[in-house]
Structure formats: structure tokens, C-alpha cells
């Protein structure tokens, strides 16, 4: 059975508003919230980027039913994996609900800020594997010493652990990242494309299909023209593709890289305006691909209207896949 959640997009909202959105999402019947974890937003038009872990602490306290997830956290650059392990354990310990830490190999936009080099993707994957191993060891509650090729944990222990185990999922885009998730005994995967090969590849490696995560942007407005404008203004950063996105250092570089992107170029990837059909089609493509946990990402400013549109017009039109 597909679960639906609400994405707290730090690049578009301040910390108080994000907490209010989580409370509203719970009242609207969403089953979980996920949060982006950035220090920089993607585009000059984005004017926020609060510290995700502070927001999550407030969300854990302000809600009572929602499961909580990150999407994605990079534990190999500006964060050390020991710190991420403690942060995740603390947020999870504040609730008796499921906390899911989704991790990835990061993008230069966020990870160059400490002055360390941003390595090639194969090295980032090595680092991510080591980070996962350290975090998993730390969550066992024992004194931990690890001396790896890239990271060390020296005589470290987390004292406040949740009663419910943290789920760790890995951001994937192909076989290399699927292999990494399998090799380091991840609990699930997260992806951004409605590709059934990713879910099937995870399942064929012994992974749990119910631990597959993704998200779909919603640029809902009452005007088709305004919807296209908002989608272009706020979500064109994904148009160049991940190989470009992961390597650009600042919002001004994303502005330059997307200078020739037109609103119509986003029609297939960012549903917009008042017509439910493109939203239903977009979400259904992920349901049919087998993803079990799907967040909607509010792109426009009318959050209440977006939630009503989801509950009244989109969600009722969705169907579970035939294999469910």
C-alpha cells in the first residue's frame, strides 16, 4: 500500500513556516514528512535555507502522528558521520514514530563550504559507504572506534538512542548506488525518477519494496499561466540533470546553467496549474514504478490550497498498481 507524505522544502520556506507546514500536513492526513538538508538553496529565487536538524527537532515536538524522514542528508562533507548519527538518534528519540535517515553522496552546492575538495563520484561513494558503517555502529549504543580510509570515529558513543530503530535509506540512480545500498545493508532506497528498474533492482538484491522513497513537485495554482511561471522560477534547477546539478557550487551557477530553460521545458517533470490530470499522471508513474513512500513537494505559496487540491482532486484519482 502506497504511503503519501509532505516535503518540507527548506529552500523555499523559513524554519517557523516549515514547522507550521508539518503540523498542517499531519492534520490533512499525510503519513510522514520529509525534509531537504541544505546550507544553500538551488537558485537565486530561493530565499531560505534553515538548518534542517533544528527544524526536525521542532517538528518532532509539534506533531504526534507523523513519521519523519530526511531527503537527502549528505554525511560525507560538511557533516561528519558521527555528528549525523547523533543528530538522527536525537530526533528519533524525541518521538515514538519511525525516523528515516535518507543519505546520499551530496552535491558541491552544499559540501564545498568547509573548503575541502569535492571529490569524484567514485570517491564520494567510498566515503558514503564508510559513513553508513560508522552511523550504523554508533546506533548500537556501544563505544565505537573505526579507522577507515576516509573517516575515523575515535572512542565515540551516543547516549540517547531511540527505542525504535532508525531506518537508513540510500539515494540511488543506477546499479552502482544500488550495489552500495546492498553492500552496506541499507534499509531502503530513495530516487527521483519513476524508474521501475530501480525498485526491481533493489528487490532483486534482497531489499524491501516497502522501503522505497521518492517525491513529486506540485506547482499548483488556480491559473495555468501562473503555475508555469512558478514551476519555472522555483524548480528549473533540476533541468540540467544530476551530472550537472551535483557539480555546481552556488545558486548563481544554477541560474547560469538554466538560463535557456523555458517554462514549457518543465511541463513533463513539474506539473503545474489547476488541472488535476498532469499531477495524477506524475504521481501514478511513481506508484506504478513500485515506490511505496511518495512525498508531494509544494512549489507554490498557497500551501492550504495545494493540500486541498491533493486531497480532493489528485489522491482520489490514483490507483494502486496491479501487482500490489
Verbal overview:
The chain is of the alpha/beta class and 324 residues long. The chain has a single domain, classed as Luciferase-like domain (TIM Barrel, Alpha-Beta Barrel), CATH 3.20.20. 39% of the residues lie in helices and 15% in strands. The protein contains twelve helices and ten strands. The chain has helices at 15-27, 52-62, 81-93, 108-111, 121-138, 175-183, 196-204, 224-235, 242-245, 251-257, 276-289, 303-314, and strands at residues 3-8, 32-35, 67-70, 99-103, 144-147, 152-156, 167-171, 188-190, 212-218, 293-298. The radius of gyration is 19 Å and the shape is globular. The relative contact order is 0.14. The model has no long low-confidence stretch (mean pLDDT 97).
Strand-helix topology:
Layout (H helix, E strand, L loop, with lengths): L2 E6 L6 H13 L4 E4 L16 H11 L4 E4 L10 H13 L5 E5 L4 H4 L9 H18 L5 E4 L4 E5 L10 E5 L3 H9 L4 E3 L5 H9 L7 E7 L5 H12 L6 H4 L5 H7 L18 H14 L3 E6 L4 H12 L10
Parallel strand pairs: 1-2, 1-10, 2-3, 3-4, 4-7, 7-8, 8-9, 9-10
Antiparallel strand pairs: 5-6
Helix pairs in contact: 1-2, 2-3, 3-5
CATH superfamily: Luciferase-like domain
Strand order of the largest sheet: 1-2-3-4-7-8-9-10
**What share of residues are in beta strands?**
15-25%
Helix content: 25-40%
User: How many domains comprise the coordinates?
Assistant: 1
Cα-to-Cα separation, first versus last residue: 7 Å
What's the shape?
globular
Task: Report the major sheet.
Answer: 8 strands, parallel, barrel
Amino acid at each position: 500500500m502506497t504511503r503519501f507524505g509532505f516535503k518540507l522544502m527548506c529552500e523555499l520556506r523559513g524554519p517557523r513556516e516549515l514547522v507550521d507546514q508539518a503540523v498542517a500536513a499531519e492534520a490533512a492526513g499525510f503519513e510522514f514528512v520529509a525534509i531537504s538538508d541544505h546550507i544553500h538553496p538551488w537558485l537565486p529565487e530561493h530565499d531560505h535555507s534553515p538548518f534542517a536538524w533544528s527544524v526536525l527537532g521542532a517538528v518532532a515536538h509539534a506533531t504526534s502522528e507523523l513519521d519523519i524522514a530526511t531527503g537527502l542528508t549528505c554525511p560525507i562533507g560538511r557533516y561528519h558521520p558521527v555528528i549525523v548519527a547523533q543528530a538522527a538518534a536525537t530526533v528519533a528519540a524525541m518521538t515514538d514514530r519511525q525516523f528515516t535517515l535518507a543519505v546520499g553522496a551530496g552535491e558541491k552546492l552544499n559540501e564545498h563550504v568547509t573548503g575541502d575538495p569535492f571529490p569524484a563520484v567514485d570517491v564520494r561513494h567510498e566515503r558514503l559507504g564508510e559513513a553508513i558503517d560508522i552511523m550504523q555502529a554508533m546506533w548500537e549504543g556501544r563505544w565505537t572506534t573505526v579507522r577507515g580510509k576516509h573517516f575515523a570515529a575515535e572512542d565515540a558513543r551516543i547516549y540517547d538512542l531511540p527505542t525504535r530503530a532508525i531506518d537508513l535509506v540510500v539515494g540511488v540512480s543506477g546499479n552502482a548506488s544500488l550495489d552500495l545500498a546492498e553492500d552496506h545493508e541499507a534499509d531502503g532506497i530513495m530516487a527521483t525518477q519513476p524508474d521501475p528498474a530501480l525498485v526491481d533492482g533493489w528487490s532483486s538484491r534482497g531489499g524491501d519494496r516497502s522501503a522505497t522513497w521518492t517525491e513529486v513537485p506540485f506547482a499548483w495554482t488556480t491559473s495555468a499561466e501562473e503555475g508555469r511561471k512558478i514551476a519555472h522560477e522555483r524548480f528549473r534547477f533540476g533541468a540540467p540533470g544530476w551530472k550537472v546539478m551535483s557539480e555546481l557550487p552556488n545558486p548563481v551557477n544554477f541560474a547560469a546553467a538554466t538560463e535557456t530553460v523555458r517554462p514549457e521545458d518543465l511541463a513533463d517533470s513539474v506539473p503545474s496549474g489547476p488541472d488535476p490530470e498532469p499531477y495524477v499522471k506524475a504521481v501514478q508513474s511513481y506508484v506504478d514504478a513500485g515506490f511505496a513512500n511518495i512525498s508531494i513537494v509544494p512549489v507554490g505559496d498557497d500551501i492550504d490550497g495545494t493540500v486541498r487540491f491533493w486531497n480532493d482532486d489528485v489522491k482520489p484519482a490514483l490507483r494502486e498498481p496491479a501487482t500490489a
